[in-house]
Amino acid sequence: MSQEEIAREAIKHALKALKKRHLVEEGAHSPAYIALSRPIISQGSEWKEKAENLEVELQQCYKAQSRLSEQLVVEVAESRALKASLQEKETAIAELEKELNQTRNECSQLKTDLEEKVKTLELVMSEHQELKAQLEQLTIKAKNAEAENKMLVDRWMLQKMQDAEKLNEANALYEDMIDRLKASGLEKLAREQVDGIVRRSEEGAEFFAESIVTSVCKHRINAHEGGCASILFEYNSGKLISGGQDRSIKMWDTSTGSLSHSLFGCLGSVLDLAITHDNRFIIAASSSNNLFVWDVNSGRVCHTLTGHTDKVCAVDVSKVSSRHVVSAAYDRTIKVWDLQKGYCTNTIIFHSNCNALCFNTDGLTICSGHVDGNLRLWDIQTGKLLSEVAAHSLAITSLCLSRNGNVILTSGRDNLHNLFDIRSLEVCGTFRATGNRVASNWSRSCMSPDGNYIAAGSADGSIHVWSISKADIVSTLKEHTAPVLCCAWSGLGKPLASADKNGIVCTWT
């Protein structure tokens, strides 16, 4: 039975007991009441009043009993609520004790982990101290090596100066022999023999040959899909390198017109190409805002030069060291890169975009041709503008430095080709032709290796060749059916190569 039923039963028993007691008392008092009523009839009214009072008191007792019963019910209900609350609190206490035990276990585990971490940290600190000591030793060795390297460089420079003096003596001897052999009619034989000896004794010298005026298309090569915007020759070689909108770099044997090698990995159209002087690395300027550097021997991309925020339209390698590369992009910046480390060493910011650039022969200055038509010279170490000249009325599209570094050829959208003295930035000559129209903002013209001729392509598919000394056209080449975007002359003097907007490459002899 529930607590409530037990309470009700208790109340019923209590009521029955009270009633029974009342009846018993009433039965016990009735004889006395009768006995007393007889002698005291005269006092009946008084006893009647007392009886009524007793009945009133009895009713009050009943009312009090009822209130007590109600209070007992309330107290039983409160007792049940308190008991339920007690059970809930006992359950909560049990859960809290369980959580406390778990927390103690976790604390113990964390304490163990902390001890292990402290031991590991002590071990790492000891290793750090050892590495620091090793670093100090290596730093000392590096300083000693740097001092030794500086000493070796000084000795090497001294040796180079001595070699240069010997070379000057050999050149003077050569000139004296040429003068004497001219008188005897053996000029050609003397040039072949003596010049060959002098050139072989000059360490690192480039092969030199007189250029010829080209007139015949030797090979017509379907090189790239979508157009070819850049071509160049390897140094001291007849191997041609081309880059196109199909994102590939291809190397061609110009003697047979056959494809010898292909390089892949560029993520955008190739807008310009450069090659190091040892013919080991090819650098491509791409519309994907990056420059890609290939190792020719392995055919793999060894560097991806990132930092420009717009398409890269021009690139060149230093003529002194194959380590330094310069690039220009349509984010109005010119960046100098360390090819050995693979990152940018200097950034030049200018308000006019640069379409073409090239290193000077000193390896410390660069020439840049801009959309505003100005030719500018920069110091690559400080980024300072050294000088500038208004070269064209419209955008400059191409720059080509002569082999001796004395003059630079500029081409512009005003369809003019100007020669400037690099030292004074004075115009040495202006070349134009009826029908010769520059095809794009990156149309590349070129100068022959001996500095005697200029070749430039036109939007009508023709190529004009000027003689610098005569300041006149000596040849007009017609084979292309699309606008010619670039021309390049082999350092061997021949052949001349050209590429057009349809991706056709022609070689001329």
TrEMBL record:
WD repeats lie at residues 221-262, 263-304, 305-347, 356-388, 448-476, 477-509. It holds the Pfam family ATG16. SMART domains: WD40. Keywords: Coiled coil, Repeat, WD repeat. CDD domains: Atg16_CCD, WD40. InterPro entries: ATG16 (IPR045160), Autophagy-rel_prot_16_dom (IPR013923), RNR_small_AS (IPR030475), WD40/YVTN_repeat-like_dom_sf (IPR015943), WD40_PAC1 (IPR020472), WD40_repeat_CS (IPR019775), WD40_repeat_dom_sf (IPR036322), WD40_rpt (IPR001680). GO terms for biological process: autophagosome assembly. Residues 51-184 form a coiled coil. Residues 46-168 form the Autophagy-related protein domain. PANTHER family: AUTOPHAGY PROTEIN 16-LIKE, AUTOPHAGY-RELATED 16, ISOFORM F. This is Autophagy-related protein 16-like.
